Amino acid sequence: MAAFVSVPAGHLRPLRLSTAVSRRPLPGTAAAAPNGASPRAPRRRAAAAGIGMVTTPKPGSPSAAASPAPPSAAASVAAAAAAAVAAMPPTDSSQLYDVVVIGGGPAGLSLSAGLGERGLRTLVLDASLDTPWPNNYGVWLDELEALGLGDCTSAVWPDAVAYVRADGAPSALNRVYVRLDRHALKRRLLARCRASGAVTVVQAAAADVDVSPGTHSVVTYRDVAPATEGGADPDTPPGRPRMVGPVRSARGAVVADATGHALRFVEMEGAPAGGDGPSSLDLRGYQAAYGIEAVVEAHPYAPGQMVLMDYRDDHMQGSAAERTESATVPTFLYAMPTAPTRVFFEETSLIAAPAVPFEDLKRRLYARLAHDGITVTEVLDEEFCLIPMGGPLPVRQQRVVAFGGAAALVHPATGYMVARALELADEAAGHIAGELAAAKAKAAASLPAGGDPDGELEVDADAVASGVWEALWSVGRRKQRDFFNFGGEYLRRLDLPTIRDFFSAFFRLPRQQWAEFLSFRLLRPGERLAFGLGVFFRTTNRVRATITPFGMFHGRGKLLMSLLPLYPVDVPPPVKLPPLPEEGA
Ligand SMILES: Cc1cc2nc3c(=O)[nH]c(=O)nc-3n(C[C@H](O)[C@H](O)[C@H](O)COP(=O)(O)OP(=O)(O)OC[C@H]3O[C@@H](n4cnc5c(N)ncnc54)[C@H](O)[C@@H]3O)c2cc1C
Predict the structure, then answer these.
(1) Residue 451: predicted pLDDT
(2) Whose CA is nearest to atom 7 of ligand 1?
(3) Which of 348, 351, 387, 411 to mutate to test the pocket of ligand 1 (most atoms within 8 A of CB)?
(4) What is the pLDDT of residue 584?
(5) In what order do the strands lie in the sheet with 332-339?
(6) What angle do CA 292, 298, 304 make, to 5 degrees?
(7) Cβ of 251 less than 6 Å from ligand 1
(8) What are 495-529's pLDDT values in tens digits?
(9) SS3 of 99, please?
């Protein structure tokens, strides 16, 4: 059987989203703009609608209000936001902030907390500050514990399993999976920002960044009405922030884009400004998933069990067309039971280009649940997830720095990022603080005799940004990403039997090794080589026969360089795994 997938022509139709989602075509679909960005004036980055996800409460469901979260969680996030806003004086356009952070998702708020704790005057603009983050984040408990956030979970599954074997048997992963308590984390990060006494947070949408002044950048923004008032304006499309008041501006020595995957203010290597012409962004794959938070009559999962990936496809054997569809466009189920009658199900395409349409994922999910005898009695929320995977890195010589999805920090082969962003936030804040301190010292030293040492120092804003970019995307991290990118590129071309063979070998690696792949370790080239050989020797000829030519013809120089120890690397602490059952006994 041919192992590489040729995508059926009918599969190329554009994605359609529910009306609550952006009405623009999505990147990764036939009708999308090449890089999802709107035309921009020279030396300016203008905001554009983009991709990400929306959690859409089902009409008529108990949670079909403004937010999918229970009212108490939504209210507590709104209260934390209001407290953080009230803690600092109103913004003043004449003030020069050390850093203006655009976006208050996990990346933006964790970065801002780190900046504030270093005493940097920081302004955070977030369009949805007073509402809970929409995404359901799954992470490994050991990742949170390493960050001192082990208690920041809303569900814990000691028994994570994967169905990736050809015989359909489960593989026990022996690593504890959790659902991040996104409301608690947002409250905690806002509290850290407030406690620092240096972070001003504003519910506002940034529209433009002017990088023409040499010593700072100017962010133009407008305030956003509180979520509770958002639906009142007939001119505002659903799901979009309702802007109020005049256009305002803020000056920052550094501006950090933390607006997620839409690449609103950052430029990527090989992506033409303004989105005209062929773009390196077209090379990205997409993880697409359709999820439901469901009430069920019953489910088959053991207590404490969740399913990380279920690649079985018995539900797709009814016709030749179904069998072909399943074999050529592999998708898996991700299932997180939180009670005997409540489960979050998500049918996921790990990586594909173009993205697998949500309607196909939804159809497959319901077919699977019906086959497994799971009766959904109520859908509380729907999740439409679209994550760009791999593709180019940000240009490192650009004024606007970025963090999180905007900095391409997502794992190119898995789509995970949140634990990594939380881990790197403090380091990134340290780099910004260090580069700014050095630039200020230089500017102070060059003050003319009699110059005001307490006045505004004229730092070289381009040099500061470039130093931050070089540190965030150090050569070691770039090579690591090339390796993960190769993995993502390979996986996206596989048919179902081959992808099962691959993951079957993957989860038979020593647990430390696959865990370090998933958790952004394998920083040393030798570790990556050992990982690759480990999969190669454990897997089937079907995988070997495809990955070898793919490595030679597609991976080539980048893959080779990622495996050669020719550059310095900063190695983070290893992943600290829980004891295996026999070790713990
Ligand atoms: C549906 C979904 C599920 C995911 N699940 C997981 C998971 O389980 N585990 C994992 O590790 N990763 C997951 N990811 C990947 C990644 O971790 C998330 O995308 C994560 O939310 C990215 O964080 P961020 O802070 O960079 O961006 P976002 O979370 O997207 O936050 C961006 C913020 O910027 C604000 N903003 C946007 N534009 C403007 C503007 N112009 N002005 C002001 N504010 C603006 C937004 O309101 C938002 O608050 C998921 C991604 C998606 C889309």
Answers:
(1) 75
(2) 137
(3) 387
(4) 57
(5) 53-57, 376-389, 285-296, 342-352, 332-339, 305-310, 159-163, 171-172
(6) 80
(7) no
(8) 999 999 999 999 999 999 999 999 999 999 999 99
(9) strand
Beta bridge partners of residue 123, listed in sequence order: 100, 200
The span from the CA of 504 to the CA of 162, in Å, is 9
**Predicted confidence (pLDDT) at residue 171 exceeds the cutoff of 50:** yes
Is ligand 1 within 6 A of the CB of residue 205? yes
d(CA 194, CA 186): 12
User: For 158-266, where are the E strands, in sequence order?
Assistant: 159-163, 171-172, 177-180, 199-210, 217-224, 243-257
Q: Is 110 in the pocket of ligand 1 (CB under 6 A)?
A: no
Tens digits of residue pLDDT in 349-387: 999 999 999 999 999 999 999 999 999 999 999 999 999
Amino acid at 61: S
User: DSSP labels for 303-320?
Assistant: TTEEEEEE---GGG-SSH
Which token pair is 192? 């850290």
Q: How many residues does the chain have?
A: 585
Supply 103's token pair.
């976006």
CA gap 402, 42 in Å, rounded: 19
Backbone angles phi, psi at 518, to 5 degrees: -70, -30
Domains along the chain with CATH numbers? 74-139+181-227+241-268+395-446+455-471 (3.50.50.60), 285-389 (3.30.70), 476-563 (no CATH)
pTM: 0.89
Is the per-residue pLDDT at 47 higher than 50? Answer: no
| 44, 109, 126: residue to mutate for ligand 1 pocket, most atoms within 8 A of CB | 126
Torsion of CA 520, 523, 525, 526, to 10 degrees: -90
> Considering only CA atoms, which of 308, 343, 347, 369 is closest in space to residue 515?
308
In angstroms, the CA 327 to CA 322 distance is 8
Instruction: Work out the angle at residue 449's Cα, subtended by the Cα atoms of residues 445 and 453, and round it to the nearest 5 degrees.
Output: 55
Query: What would the two tokens of residue 190 be?
Result: 């806002």
Query: pLDDT per residue over 397-422, tens digit each?
Result: 999 999 999 999 999 999 999 999 99
Q: Which of the listed residues 22, 200, 414, 417 should we mutate to test ligand 1's pocket, taking the one with most ligand atoms within 8 A of CB?
A: 417
Q: How far is residue 36's CA from residue 26's CA, in Å, rounded to a whole number? A: 7
Residue with tokens 């019906």: 370
- If we measure between CA atoms, which residue out of 74, 68, 140 comes closest to residue 384? 68
Kindly list the distances between the CA atom of residue 154 and the CA atoms of 77, 148, 180, 181, in Å, as whole numbers in the listed order: 15, 16, 6, 5
Single-letter residue type at 416: Y
CB 34 within 8 A of CB 274: no
For 88-98, the pLDDT digits (tens) are 988 888 899 99
Strands 305-310, 159-163: parallel, antiparallel or unpaired by DSSP?
A: parallel
User: What are phi and psi for residue 197, nearest 5 degrees?
Assistant: 70, 10
